[in-house]
Write a structure and sequence with these properties.
It is built from 11 helices and 10 strands. The protein has about 325 residues and is α+β, with helices and mostly antiparallel strands. The chain folds into 2 domains: about 35-220, 4-Layer Sandwich (Glutamine Phosphoribosylpyrophosphate, subunit 1, domain 1); about 235-325, Tetratricopeptide repeat domain (Serine Threonine Protein Phosphatase 5, Tetratricopeptide repeat), CATH 1.25.40. Strands 7-8-1-2-9-10 form a 6-stranded antiparallel beta sheet, with helices on one face. Strands 3-4-5-6 form a 4-stranded antiparallel beta sheet, with helices on one face. A hairpin with a 6-residue loop joins β1 (about 35-40) and β2 (about 45-55). α2 crosses α3 and α8 packs antiparallel against α9 (about 285-300). Mean pLDDT is about 85; it is low at about 1-30.
Length: about 325
């Protein structure tokens, strides 16, 4: 559950009075449900959060991650300030349990909060306040914590934990599998709307990963987890293309060509990937395959021909040959 971002103007006055402790008629403020997982991978040192909710743009409220520090999910009667506050405390060396106690000590609405925390040592804790709407709860395991509220029942979080423990592969795949298992077990009581996946990983060769490794959001969708998985696949394709660019620049053309091919196979409907991977494949010596990829991109979006004519030989060495083959 996440508190709505806005209170209608005709309720604003009554809402302020209610918060101030004045008696009055009960207000029917909309409640929304959320389930999430926070996790740490000791092998890759990745920290991540995955979440789904019947709430617009849940990724702006629930997940908070900092590489080498920890991951936090703050939900139910959400206080978004708890995310950065928890990360700041974790950064001082406090354990996840100590951080949870520190948050509770200063939050006058703690009984309505739900929070999951995992630190960079894999110590995971969560909290479900007694005022969270039924069914609400969660569990912790080695390196992870799952939690949710307004759910179909305890099978939702149990399924989420089981899927995370048993799924193989990278953290991103395990986190999405956990959300999918939660939904298969009944999910939340009010449906689906948005989802998010945030993972950070320390890296000496790519410092930008200390800020974001994966940060995907589905703001509004009938089947948000399906869309989140599609976006993760697309990101994988772009990552392959980026790695291929580096190999090509290093003169490792055969390896680069193989990665470009895999990228295009992962995202066959991306005209942008088809275009750039086609030019790169042509540069590696696979002119036929490169031209075929560029032709498919142009069929989807003829404006790629305009760009092809404007590319300099220094920027796209194979551009002239590809353009000639397309005439």
């Amino acid at each position: 559950m996440i508190r709505p971002r806005r209170v209608p103007s005709f309720l604003a006055g009554a809402f302020v009075l209610a918060c101030a402790g004045f008696a009055g008629p009960a207000l029917a403020i909309q409640q929304t449900s959320t389930f999430s997982i926070v996790a740490y991978d000791s092998v890759t040192q990745e920290l991540g959060v995955a979440v789904q909710s019947k709430y617009f743009s849940v990724g702006t409220a629930v997940p908070w991650v900092k590489a080498g520090v920890g991951a936090v999910a703050t939900q139910a009667n959400v206080n978004v300030a708890l995310g950065p506050q928890a990360l700041a405390l974790l950064a001082t060396g406090m354990s996840s349990a100590d951080v949870m106690r520190a948050l509770a000590a200063t939050d006058t609405s703690w009984a309505g909060r739900q929070v999951g925390i995992v630190d960079a040592q894999g110590r995971a804790v969560n909290w479900t306040g007694p005022r969270c709407m039924d069914w609400a709860g969660g569990e912790t395991g080695p390196g992870f914590a799952v939690q949710g509220n307004i759910l179909a029942g305890p099978a939702v979080t149990a399924g989420m934990a089981k899927a995370y423990r048993e799924t193989k592969g990278e953290m991103a795949e395990r986190l999405i599998a956990a959300l999918e298992a939660a939904q298969a077990a009944g999910g939340d009581k009010r449906g689906m709307q948005s989802a998010a996946l945030m993972i950070m990983r320390p890296s000496t060769t790519h410092p930008q990963y200390n800020t974001r490794y994966i940060d995907l959001r589905v703001e509004d969708h009938d089947v948000p987890l399906q869309e989140l998985r599609r976006l993760l696949t697309l990101q994988g394709a772009y990552d392959l293309a980026g790695a291929a660019d580096e190999l090509l620049a290093a003169g490792r053309t055969d390896e680069a060509g193989e990665l470009y091919k895999r990228a295009a196979e992962l995202a066959p409907n991306s005209d942008e990937l088809l275009f750039w991977s086609g030019l790169a494949r042509a540069q590696t010596g696979d002119l036929e395959g490169g031209v075929a990829a560029v032709r498919r991109a142009v069929e989807e979006n003829p404006n790629w021909l305009v760009l092809l004519d404007r590319l300099s030989p220094e920027f796209a060495p194979a551009g002239g040959a590809v353009r000639q083959a397309l005439r």
